[in-house]
Amino acid sequence: MTTELTPRILDAVDAYFDEQVDFLAALTAHPSTRGNEQSAQDFMASALTDRGYEVDRWQIDVEDIRHLPGFSPVLGPYEDAVNVVGSHRSKTNTGRSLILNGHIDVVPEGPLDMWDSPPYEPRVAEGWMYGRGAGDMKAGLVSNLYALDALRRLNLAPAADVFYQSVVEEECTGNGALACLARGYKADAALIPEPFAEQLVTAQLGVIWFQVHLKGLPTHVAYAGQGANAIEAAIPLISALHEMEARWNGVEHRHGDYAHMDHALNLNIGKIQGGDWTSSVPAWCVFDVRMGIFPGQSIEDAKKEIEAVLMEAARENAFLRNSLPEIVYHGFHAEGYALSDDKSRSAADAIGALDSAHGTVTGGALDRAAITATTDARFFGLYADTPALVYGPTAEAIHGFNERVDLESMRRVTKATALFIADWCGVEDI
After folding, report:
1. For 94-151, how does the pLDDT look when each residue is reduced to its tens digit (9 = 90+)?
2. Tens-place pLDDT, residues 235-284
C-alpha cells in the first residue's frame, strides 16, 4: 500500500461515517435474537447485493456439520438458522485472501422496564449508540462493511478474494461460523471485530453448556417430609460444581495467557426451572450451566470430571443417591483458542499488518488482551489453520441493560480495518 493511499482511505471513512451510523441504527432495530435473525439477514443480504457482491444466503443443515470438529449439539430446530456471505472475487489475486466475520444474533433483552429506552429503538447520546446488539456485535459487522466501502469509493477493491460473513449462532454454539467452513469459505486470515476495546485478543476461553435434570418425589406440602424436593436437591450439586470451578482455576492448570488471572474460568447457573404448584413438593428441576475451560484443556476430559463431580455429590444426598441426575449437553462445546500459540509466518504477518494499521489511526501501540469469553475465532484458528484476529470497538453493558457502543471507537476500528485490508490483500482497480 502506498503512503499516498493511506490518507485517502481515512478520508473516505470519515466522509461516509454519518451514513455508517445510520446503517448501524437500522441494523440494530432488527430484534435478531436466536431464531429471529431472518429480517436482519435479509437486510445484510440486500446491502451486499446493492454493493455488487456475490451473495450466498442459505439455511444451515445440521447434518452438513454434525460430523465436523467444533460442532456443538443443538436442542431446537434449525429451519430458521440462516447465514449470509458476500464474496468479493479479485481480478488479479496478487494479495492475500481474507475473511471478515461477524455474528448477527443477539442475546435476549430481558425485562424491558429495566432499559432506559427500548432496546430495539436505537438512540445516540453523547457519542454512544444504545440498543441491544449495537455493541455485540453489529457495530463490528458494520465496520467490516464500511471498511470495504471506503476502498470501493476510491474505485479500488482488494487484490485478493474477501468473504464477508454475517453468521448466526455465535451466542450459543458457533455453528454458523462452522457452516461457513463446511461450505468452503477459507482464506489466509480472518478478522472478527468483537467489542474488546480496540485490543487484539491473544487468547479466549472455551465454553461448555449443559443441563442437569433432577427428579423428586411429589406430595402435598402438608406432608413435605414424605416427599423429595427436586429444586432444593439442586443446591448441593451447584455447590459441588463451584468447588470444581475453584480447582480448575488453580495456578497449575492455567494457560500461559491467563497466568496473571486468579479466576479466569467462570461457572454460571444461567437458568433454573422446576415444580408445578406452590403447595406441592416439586417433582422436577432443571438447571442450565455454563462453564469455561482454558485453551488446550480437553472438552471430553472436562465433561468426565463434571459428570463425576455431580454424581459424587448426588450419592451423598439421601434421596438423590437413588435418583441420580441426568446430564444433557446442548449448545457450546467450544475449545479455547490462543492466537499467541500460533507461531506461523502468516500469523505474525497478519498481526503486524493490524498493528501497523491501528498505530496509523490511533498513534499508539496495539494492546493485547486475553479474554474470559469465547468467539468464533476458534473455528478458523483451530480447524482451518487460519490466524484469526479479534479486534473491535469499545462497547459497554453487552448482554446487559442499556448496551451501548462508542461511535468514535467504531470509526477508528473502521479506519484500521480498511488500512489492514489494503495492506493484507493489496488493492486493484475496480
Report:
1. 999 999 999 999 999 999 999 999 999 999 999 999 999 999 999 999 999 999 999 9
2. 999 999 999 999 999 999 999 999 999 999 999 999 999 999 898 888 89
Select the CATH number that applies to the domain covering 5-204+337-429 from these four: 1.10.3720.10, 3.10.100.10, 3.40.630.10, 3.40.50.10140: 3.40.630.10
Write out the three cell numbers for 391.
479486534
C-alpha cell at 286: 432443571
CATH architecture of 206-334: 2-Layer Sandwich (3.30)
If pLDDT is split at 50, 70 and 90, which confidence band does 221 have? very low
Contact 101, 165 (CB under 8 A): yes
* Cell numbers for 238: 451447584
CA–CA gap between residue 271 and residue 232 (Å, rounded)? 15
For the record, the C-alpha cell of 420 comes out as 489492514
Q: Look up the pTM and report it.
A: 0.94
- Where is 234: in which H helix or E strand? helix 230-248
Helix (H/G/I), strand (E/B), else coil: 429: strand
- CA-CA distances (angstroms) from residue 210 to 41, 148, 268, 271, 287? 29, 39, 11, 11, 9
The CA-atom distances, in angstroms, between 190 and each of 21, 83, 87, 102, 425 are 24, 17, 14, 10, 12
